[in-house]
C-alpha cells in the first residue's frame, strides 16, 4: 500500500497555534466560571434520572452509528477503496479520543493511520470530506434557525445564507469535475453524498432532541424553541479554537437560552451533561481501541 504523507504545518507554528488555543480555551472557561458555579452544573448531571441518562446514551449510540457510516461513505468516494467494515469501525472509534489531543479536534485525522486505503493522501481527503459534511449539516440547520431567530435581519440575507449552505455539496460535485484526475470521484460522490447529507441532518436532530430532553428536565420548554436555540449553539462546533468545543459551546448556550428563561447554570449543565455522554464516554471506549490497534 502506498504511504504518501500529506503536507504538515511547521513544528514551531503548530506549537504556537496549540499554545494559543489552550490559552483561549482556558480564558473562555474562566470567564464562564466567574458567572456560573461549574461544580453545581457538573453535579447536576449525576442527579439526572437514570431512565433519562439511559435514553440519552441510547440516542448518543444511534448518533455515533450514523457518524460511523458518514466516515465509511467518505472513504467510499474513492473508487479504489476496498471496504473493511471492522477496520473502519476501529478507525472511527480511535478518532474519538484523538479529538481531545489538540484544540479543534484536528488530531482525529490520525485515524487515517488505522484504515487501509489506496494511499494515505486518499484517506486524508476522505476525512476532510467527512468533516466537511459534518460542518455542512451544522451550518445548514443553523442558517435555518437564524432565519427565524433574527427576524430583523434582511430576508434576502437569510435566504442567501440558506441557499449557499444547501448548494455547497453541489458545488463540490462540480469542482470534482474540473480536473481529469478527480472526475472518477464524481460517480461515487453522486451516489454517496445524499446519504451523507441525510446522516448529518439526522445526527443534528438527534442532538437537538437530547438537548430538549435535558432542558425540559429542569424547566418546561417548547421543542421548537429549544431546537432553534441549540441549532445556533451547535454552530460553535464549527469554530475550531477550543478542545472539542468546550467553553465556546457553553458561551453560546448561555447567550441563546437566556431568552427562553434558562439560567446560565442550567445551560452549562445541559451542555456539559451531553458532552460527558456524547464525547467523554465514547472517547474512553475509543481509547481501548487506540491502545490495542496497530497502524496499517
Beta content: under 5%
Give me the number of helical elements: 10
User: Overall mean pLDDT score?
Assistant: 85
CA radius of gyration is 20 Å
- Extract low-pLDDT stretches: 1-9
Shape: globular
Strand segment tally? 0
Largest sheet: none
From N to C, what is the helix and strand string? HHHHHHHHHH
Class per helix and strand makeup? mainly alpha
Helix content: over 70%
Kindly report how far apart the N and C termini lie.
9 Å
Describe this structure in words.
The structure is a single chain. The N terminus is likely disordered. The chain is built from ten helices and no strands. With 296 residues, the chain is mainly alpha-helical. 71% of the residues lie in helices and 0% in strands.
Short structural summary:
By secondary structure, this protein is an all-alpha fold. It is 71% helix and 0% strand. It contains ten helices and no strands.
Which terms summarize this structure?
10 helices, mainly alpha, single chain, 296 residues, 71% helix
What is the strand and helix layout of this fold?
Blueprint: H1 11-35, H2 38-46, H3 50-76, H4 85-98, H5 120-149, H6 155-176, H7 186-218, H8 223-234, H9 248-257, H10 264-292
Helix pairs in contact: 2-10, 3-5, 3-7, 4-10, 5-6, 5-7, 5-8, 6-7, 7-8, 7-10, 8-9, 9-10
